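Quick start: read one record
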Amino acid sequence: MLDLERILRDRGYRLTNQRRVIVRELEDERHLSAEELYDRVKGEHPELGLSTVYRTLDLLTELGVVRKEDFGEGYSRYELSTERVHHHARCDGCGSVIEFNEELMEYLALQVERETGFVTDWHEITLHGRCAACSA
């Protein structure tokens, strides 16, 4: 939370209670949509509206605190940005999202950089298919 406060302050923003609540919720659960996040916090924080959740997620994404993910569902999911590079496998059957870290993916990104001169700031690969339960 201290880093968040510093990041906000450096860009001229304050660490409001709404921002604190949203970041804490994303610390507990990854890959939440704005609506899911709102549903999780509205009971304890009725002052927090859905539009505030969207505005806050947009700001935190712009500041690099939150990463916005598109898994092809027609809406975005959010997670805290971390130093740890990871990738996703999304089940087209049940919608579950599995995180994984595979060195081969890191090698692939480096190979693309070497071959094309493209400079990667960060990368993420999403696999689409069916989880073990749905494919059985």
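The helical segments are 2-10, 17-28, 34-41, 50-62, 103-116, 132-135.
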